[in-house]
Design a protein that fits this description.
alpha+beta, binds glutathione, Glutathione S-transferase Yfyf (Class Pi), Chain A, domain 2, about 10% strand
Length: about 210
């Protein structure tokens, strides 16, 4: 049985992607709280010994350190035969949306939410730019899940796990009220939360939290 250790911090939606995937696959992991707010991931020593990319999360599998949630999710899906592709067309579709999520939805939501909730107020023009990009990406997701239960279609896949992560934190952090602004996304998040074994981000990612400004 593979032994997992997840280097994370509680506010990290990218960490939640892996914690949720492992949990939904019936796997446990040792949580390794990391002082992201204190700048540990920026230190030379951490980059040399844990992740040269300077990013959280890092998933250790029997001591081997893996990074980048997309290939890790693909690997776990293959290993447990859950939430993966069943056909070549689905494989392509999953890769296509994972790239989109990493670059667009997660990329901008993570940056916007972090600056809004966990840093002192910054340049309003920067926030406005990030939010306007995000509105576009949320609109794309809203349309995608309006006429199908999950991003790929009838069943949940790693796409849902990846894309829901930053939208699953308490509403006050990013400041979006999806029930009012994006009802299809709100309903989709409800379907994900109904998956057997689902847990919320702060249930799966315990420990000392960062100061919140909103
Ligand atoms: N594409 C990466 C994104 C990881 C990422 O950006 N993690 C954030 C924390 S949630 C981080 O470490 N950011 C540091 C930085 O951008 O300098 C993944 O999927 O693992």
């Amino acid at each position: 049985m593979t032994r997992y250790r997840l280097h994370y911090f509680p506010e990290s939606g990218n960490s939640y992607k892996l914690a949720l995937m492992l949990t939904l696959c019936g796997q446990s992991f040792e949580p390794v709280w990391t002082d992201f707010g204190g700048g540990v991931t920026r230190t030379e020593a951490w980059r040399r010994t844990v992740n040269p990319m300077g990013e959280i999360p890092v998933l250790e599998e029997d001591g081997e350190k893996l990074t980048q949630t997309a290939p890790i999710l693909l690997r776990l899906a293959g290993r447990y035969g859950r939430f993966g592709a069943e056909t070549e067309a689905e494989r392509f579709e999953i890769l296509r949306w994972l790239f989109w999520d990493n670059q667009k939805l997660t990329g901008f939501m993570a940056t916007y939410r972090f600056r809004r909730a966990f840093l002192p107020p910054g340049d309003p023009a920067v926030m406005e730019f990030l939010k306007s990009r995000l509105e576009d990406f949320l609109g794309i997701l809203e349309r995608q899940v309006a006429d199908r239960p999950f991003v790929l279609g009838e069943r949940a896949t790693i796409l849902d796990i990846s894309m829901c992560a930053y939208l699953s934190f308490p509403r006050e952090e990013a400041g979006f009220d999806f029930a009012a602004s994006h009802p299809a996304i709100q309903a989709w998040l409800g379907r994900i939360a109904a998956l057997p074994g689902w847990k919320s981000p702060y249930e799966l990612l315990p420990g000392q939290r960062m100061r919140r400004y909103v």
